[in-house]
Amino acid sequence: MSAELAFNRSVDVDYGVAEEVAPGVRRIVANNPGPYTFLGTNTYLVGSGEIAVIDPGPADADHLAAIAAATRGERISHILITHSHRDHCDGALPLQRRLGGDIVAFGPTGTARGAGAPGLGDTFVDKAFRPDLPVGDGDTVKARGFALDVLHMPGHAPDHLCFALVGKRTMFTGDHVMGWNTTVIAPPEGDMGDFIASLERLMQRHDKVFLPGHGGRIETPQRVVRAYITHRKWREQNILACIDDGVSTIPRIVAKLYGALDANLKEAAALSVLAHLEHLNARGMVSAEGATDKLSGFYVRGSGAAPSS
Ligand SMILES: [Zn+2]
What we know:
This protein is an alpha/beta fold. It contains 7 helices and 14 strands. The chain has helices spanning 61-70, 86-89, 92-99, 192-203, 221-244, 250-258, 263-282, and strands at 19-22, 25-29, 42-46, 50-54, 75-80, 102-105, 133-134, 140-143, 146-152, 161-165, 170-174, 209-212, 286-289, 298-301. The strands form 3 sheets. It has a 7-stranded mixed beta sheet with strand order 1-2-3-4-5-6-7, with helices on one face. Strands 8-9-10-11-12 form a 5-stranded mixed beta sheet, with no helix packed on it. A two-stranded antiparallel sheet has the order 13-14. Helix 4 (192-203) links the parallel strand 11 (170-174) and strand 12 (209-212).
């Protein structure tokens, strides 16, 4: 089983320019490139005349000015947030102050937020974020020119939403499925069991195009989702094989599976392995021993059955 995922990583981007990426959908890429954001956060403008802004991106003056310029003469009815990570939601209030629109998001989750790694931790999550209109799975956000069905897709973040453009077989996937890389799942912010269940929900659908929070259009959604699931199963098998070989702590598993990494990526890899171990633990397939914290215990095989997801 191969873990290689084929991504289109072309780096052809014009920051601040609204580009039509699907009928009735324009994209502006924010100039916040980085190890977790690829070239930057994608902001989508849906509709014409009355506009939904999906993920206003970071609170960046040039990016907000670009949104304002692209929507001149139009009205922003809604500002939708896929999840309350700062690269997606920090621009919401400044944009609302400038151009109006109700802020729509899943709202507080009631679960622990944040993750203990640079770039993934508390600094990355806006714990104070509150929408004007909290929505949940099955809701629809409508204005004159568009209707967006809301799907709650936890996994990358507990409040993660995807938005399906009604009648267009087009899905805004945020960071649940991205166009350039696999998604970071870092507990407690990330939950591998939820993530895989959310991927399996996407497999049941017949979307034609995914428009992700980072990276380009995904033209083969089913194939990419299947590859995401295959990649996680392959990683899980590798982790079980490590434990069977007596490689039973997270730092040793990371060293064996990922080789040499810089410090930041090593921490992200450790959290990703932890996410898998928690998912295995939830199914009784491994258990932790001697742990003072979740990242430092020994893991041994449990009595659970063979992995099914
Ligand atoms: Zn993001």
